[in-house]
Amino acid sequence: MRVKINGVLTERELEIIIGCGADEVGIFIGQQYASPFFILPSTAARLVKMLPPGICPVMDTHITDHHELLSLMERSGIYTVQLHCWKQDEVLKLRERLPHYAKILLNLFPASPNFNHEDITLCNQIADGISVDCFNYEPGNNSGSYGFPDWEAATGISGSLNAPWWLNGGLCAENVGNAIQKTGPFGVEADILLRQDGILNAEQCRKFVTMAKNNGSN
């Protein structure tokens, strides 16, 4: 089970993520919609240099233009990019210009009223991995979120996903085991619920990673 912790803001938070045993860290750059997690590309580059071998940095972004994405990747030194917003033609142009080791992950929002099932087919054709968010609506949707994690939305599409997929949205140490058992993802990712008063909590991170790695068993 791959475990990704999102939204690192400081060197201290990165140390927490490294110490808890996460496999991936989500670093948010390229903001277009409201979010508490975005940092500058220069800050991202400094954090990436702190990462030990074995922990993969992932650039989470709202940007869709392939020229801007390439610039952000070069400035940050992150060559796995997770697109929370995406357009097929821009993803294909990005793919053509990326080095062979770079990876593209695409977000799906099956709990959103705007969800288009044709996006599953597109993801299967052009993505190296897929993040299935069963809590939030797509960025820019003013209605915000579904209100609670809808694992049924993930199980409803998981059989149609050809690429490895991560379960995302509304996950924490208390529910990740149940979510994994119900949906069977390749990996899981979490962010806001691992924080207390806006600060990443080391104990919550450790518990989340442990429960995820053990598929919910202590």
What labels describe this entry?
218 residues, alpha/beta, TIM Barrel, eight-stranded parallel β-barrel, two-stranded antiparallel sheet, 8 helices, 10 strands, globular
Structure description:
With 218 residues, the chain is α/β, with parallel strands linked by helices. It has one domain (2-110, 117-135, 162-213): Aldolase class I (TIM Barrel), CATH 3.20.20. Helix content is 36%, strand content 20%. It has helices at residues 11-20, 41-50, 66-76, 88-97, 118-126, 151-158, 176-183, 202-213; strands spanning 2-6, 24-28, 56-61, 80-83, 103-108, 129-133, 165-168, 187-190, 195-196, 199-200. α3 (66-76) packs across α4. The model has no long low-confidence stretch (mean pLDDT 95).
Task: Write the SSE topology.
Elements: E1 2-6, H1 11-20, E2 24-28, H2 41-50, E3 56-61, H3 66-76, E4 80-83, H4 88-97, E5 103-108, H5 118-126, E6 129-133, H6 151-158, E7 165-168, H7 176-183, E8 187-190, E9 195-196, E10 199-200, H8 202-213
Helix pairs in contact: 1-8, 2-3, 3-4
Tally of individual helices: 8
Helix fraction bin: 25-40%
- Uncertain runs: none
- What's the SSE pattern? EHEHEHEHEHEHEHEEEH
Number of structural units classed as domains: 1
- From the alpha carbons, calculate the radius of gyration and give it in angstroms: 16 Å
Please outline what is shown here.
The protein has one domain: TIM Barrel (Alpha-Beta Barrel). 36% of the residues lie in helices and 20% in strands.
